[in-house]
Amino acid sequence: MSQNTGKFKKAMRPIDVWGLALGAIIGWGCFVLPGNAFLPKAGPAGTAAGMMIGALMIIIIAVSYGYLIKKFPVSGGEFVYTKEAIGKRNAFVCGWGMILAYWSLIPLNATALALISRYLFPGIVQWGLLYEVAGWEVYAGEVVLASAFIIIMALINIRGIKQAAWMQTAIALTLVGCICIVTFFVLSISDWSNLAPGFPEGRHWWKGVFSIVAMAPWAFIGFDCIPQSAEEYNFSHRKSTSIMILAVLIAALLYIAVCTVTAVGLEPWQELLASRNNWPTGHVVRNTMGIAGLSVLGLAMFCAVISGMNAFYISTSRLMYAMAKEGSLPKWFEHISPKHGTPRNAILFTMAASLFAPWFGREILIWIVDMTSVGAAIVFAYTTASAAIIARRNGSRKYFIFGIIGCLFSLFFLSLLIVPGMPGYLSQQSRVVLLAWIAIGFIFYMIIRKSYVKGQN
Predict the structure, then answer these.
(1) By three-state DSSP, how is residue 131 classified?
(2) Cα separation of 139 and 141, whole Å?
(3) Is it true that the peptide bond before 40 is cis, omega within 30 degrees of 0?
């Protein structure tokens, strides 16, 4: 490490790490997708079943993460684990997929602020129409709003993990509280018969359930942010497994709660969807709880967006720092601010890359995020395979079995996404973007291969 580089500060409490994970898991999709994707695909019962099955499979995978955090309590997470167990080449593949998955969620959450304003405050920031991309109108006001929050979150992260972690915890607790308030009031005054039928008519129930299971890597991506800040814990790393499990379970319940609110609130859920309302969840909350309820829901969405941006800033920058230490990224990313103890250069680069995204329209970003599940599934497979290999080396039968099962689950997730005809098969646009990212990674790897693999840094 260079002489002008500082060290990470150990300032994260257990509740901060839990807030980091939950805030990363619950984003804008929890509030927008119930009426746009979850209910149309699976219905209220199918969504609940699919979310819980997905959560349990993710928890099996999380056990391997907890084992590896104890073995390697350093930043870099999956990249480091794969390097130690399988080698540098595979670690690069793992890290390359993680960078895309983590980075893309920062500008996506930022542009979600404009999406929220379109629903809650029509016309406020929709000024200065610039152009249209893939059917999405790009406004100067929305670009300014998204860019401002990208810059603000970067500055907060540069100033130190303690401030970022404190903010993350407060926002995560507010998020949970707001969803609980909305859920309690809507369920207490609604006709529960609106939840029937439990599954979409004319579609096999198992297809609905597994279309939701296929989204689990995307829906729960964020629990894996926990290893990225492992060097900054002020507590025993043994607690990390229970923190991850708690975050995943609560996230699953929040997804199910918002989906149930959408389905039960006003009328039978299939009639609600047939009305083609732009935002079914907001429509239900406004018509059952009034402006006050919509304001609480809006606060929850705002918290989800900000906590997601913060969590992925933390994770992306720590990952880039770890990859730079191993020579798979330029040494510039290895710099740690002596004053603040944060990877300043990595944060600044992440900010700069994110500032380009709002100019391209939200639809392009959704194509990128649609394939985030593929990247997450690959990373989960590498991590669980690494856990099995390392557990076998250390004679731990328990974690070897968990690793094998977790790897099989990860490959199952992947098959749901990339095998034609499967419930979660990627759209054509997402497949094109995925191939482009693979091609860029291959070119970059060929450039650094000699120095990286042979260690001639």
Answers:
(1) strand
(2) 5
(3) no
DSSP sequence for 391-435 = HHHTT-HHHHHHHHHHHHHHHHHHHHHHSTTSTTPPPHHHHHHHH
In a domain, 402, yes or no: no
Closest by CA to 233, choosing from 173, 338, 161, 167, is 161
Assess contact for 231 and 3: CB atoms under 8 A: no
Q: Which domain holds residue 204?
A: 14-72+105-361
Question: Is 341 contained in some domain?
Answer: yes
Digit-by-digit pLDDT tens for the chain (457 residues) are: 333 455 666 767 888 888 888 988 998 788 888 887 888 888 999 999 999 999 999 999 999 999 999 888 877 788 999 999 999 999 999 988 888 778 878 888 888 787 777 777 778 888 899 988 877 788 999 899 999 999 998 998 888 666 667 777 888 899 999 999 999 999 998 888 888 888 888 778 888 898 888 888 878 888 888 877 777 777 777 888 999 999 999 999 999 999 999 999 878 888 888 887 778 898 899 889 998 998 999 899 888 888 888 888 888 888 888 888 888 888 888 888 887 778 899 999 999 988 988 888 776 666 766 677 788 888 999 999 999 999 999 999 999 999 999 999 999 888 888 888 876 778 788 888 888 888 988 888 888 888 887 664 3
Please name the residue that has the structure tokens 């599934």. Answer: 377
Q: Which two tokens stand for residue 111?
A: 């542009």
Q: Is residue 161, in this structure, part of any structural domain at all?
A: yes
